[in-house]
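Hi F.,

I've been meaning to write this up properly since the lab meeting, where we talked about keeping a consistent format for the predictions we share between groups. The idea is simple: the sequence comes first, exactly as it goes in, then the structure tokens exactly as they come out, then a line or two of notes. No screenshots and no reformatting. I'm using this chain as the first example so we have something concrete to point to.
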Amino acid sequence: MTRFFVDSHTLAMERVALAGENAAHAKVLRLKASEQVLLCDGQGMEALCQVEATQPEYILSVLERRRALSEPGVKVRVYMALPKAEKLEHVIQKATELGAEQIVTFPTARCVSRPDEKSLKKKLERWQKIAASAAEQSGRGVIPEVRVLSSYQKALEEAAQADMPILLYENEHATTLRMALDSKEYSTVSLISGPEGGFEEKEVAQAQALGIRVCTLGRRILRCETAPLCAVSAVMYAAGEY
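Output, unedited:
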């Protein structure tokens, strides 16, 4: 079903006139009177609507408001160290499709990419647009927030607040991701992954000092853009989303 993202004020109306990009999208789709669509506020609420009129503008009448039916029962935040090139864009798009609630990036000792404040601001705007587009395409009821933290320590402290905080580390051999996910019940998960060169040993120790589980994703070394997506998929499978 076609969905349009609107603000919460618009979602509260009984009759909605599509405007801007939403109106242009409706025109491209050639929506017809009596067709049903979804309006979403990007924060987990949606409204089932019926097209009431198409000329001179698209008018929708609200049939039902509800919590978004497409959102997973477990909330997953992806914490990914700043990678090179467009790798983060790929992770944002795919993690959104998989159901991540937030995508957070931060610097570590081995990060090659270190954009300045000005370029980071532009990148952040682009990253948020990628998340919004992926949310619309994949039928999400929430647009994941993309954020940048100034330090690895801040990322660890924030990630540690989840019911199940996990750091993915290629040199861990004892604890697998499955073992961690099977160890207790949880409703929130933080997945921390490193840059191209991985984490330094002292950075792993920092995470462990905050009670973060260190896990392996198996015997193979995954690229920095593959590891977080693999982990999100595994969490969603373990939570019964597939």
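Notes:
The chain is about 35% helix and 25% strand.
Helices lie at 8-11, 20-29, 87-98, 117-138, 152-159, 177-181, 201-209, 227-238.

If this format works for you, I'll send the rest the same way.

G.
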